Amino acid sequence: MSLQQIERPFFVGHEPRRQKSVAGLLRQASEAADGFLARYGMLFSFLTLWQVASSLGWINAAVFPPLNAIVTALWDGLVGGALLDDIAISLQRSGTAFVAAVLVAIPVGLIMGQVRAVERALDPILQVFRQTSALALYPVFILLLGLGEASKIFVIFWATLFPLLLNTIGGVKEVDKKLIEMARVYGASRLTVFRRVVLPGAVPSIFVGLRLSATTALLLLIASEMIGANKGVGFQVMNAQYNFQIPLMFAAILLLAALGLIANFALVALQRRLCRWSEVIG
């Protein structure tokens, strides 16, 4: 048997496999590119149109500066350290209010969702407060707590409390009653039913409330820092607008959007880790 006859089966057997592997990789890359364009194509088209329209003078560049000018202002603010101080202060305010809302809303929501008498007693006042805008109450909080940090944190806390509270109550009520009855038939105690059935069933809805509350915290942060503040990302937006530093104003707005996306991504990742049995929409 010659050397060519020995080597031929090797090449014949592996060449189609190699071609198949390359074709599979190309197909996966094409599917990934199509998915990326389907998800982010409109966003990139919008940003590209903004950049081109501002650069060519189709829109007023003084009002809508090109994206490269906004990115430059953002980079200068971060490197110079001015925006870093604002980020730290804003995260401290919104984070404190968010944690306080979590500590209050989740326990109260779990109790109201399970104990009918408590829900009946608290629901009317809850509905009244829920329909009252936190911004409308902000002057009241300023009168009671002053223009310092307390009023800013409390108005954010007030706005973030209700989305989380209502979603927690709704999550407890949406737990399948048959599962609760089955657990009781098998002799599970009330605490065991709550720990093994009610709480896991309510967790996905609680995470929806957490994501809504995190978004609300950042929205109210801007409003609270626009009144009586001298530091923070929201203050930076107003200060840049007053001084007609439009690229810096948009840079601060972009920074707030990035903080919101990071918070949402972190909560979605945590929900996927804790709620593997449920579908999570990012």
Can you walk through the features of this model?
The chain is an all-alpha fold and 282 residues long. It is built from 10 helices and no strands. The protein starts with a helix and ends in an 8-residue tail after the last helix.
List the helices and strands and how they pair.
Elements: H1 3-55, H2 67-80, H3 82-114, H4 116-130, H5 134-145, H6 149-173, H7 177-185, H8 190-225, H9 233-242, H10 246-274
Helix content: over 70%
Instruction: Tell me the span between the first and last alpha carbons.
Output: 62 Å
What is the CATH level 1 assignment of the largest domain?
Mainly Alpha
Oligomer class: single chain
Specify the structural class: mainly alpha
Main sheet summary: none
**Structure annotation, total helices:** 10
What's the structural domain tally? 2
CATH superfamily placement of the largest domain? MetI-like
> What is the mean pLDDT?
82
Low-confidence stretches: none
Radius of gyration, in angstroms, nearest whole number: 27 Å
User: Within the CATH hierarchy, at the fold level, what is the topology of the largest domain?
Assistant: MetI-like fold
Question: In what range is the share of β-strand residues?
Answer: under 5%
For the record, the CATH architecture of the largest domain stands as: Orthogonal Bundle
The H-and-E topology, N to C, reads as: HHHHHHHHHH
Choose one word for the global shape. Answer: flat
**Total number of beta strands:** 0
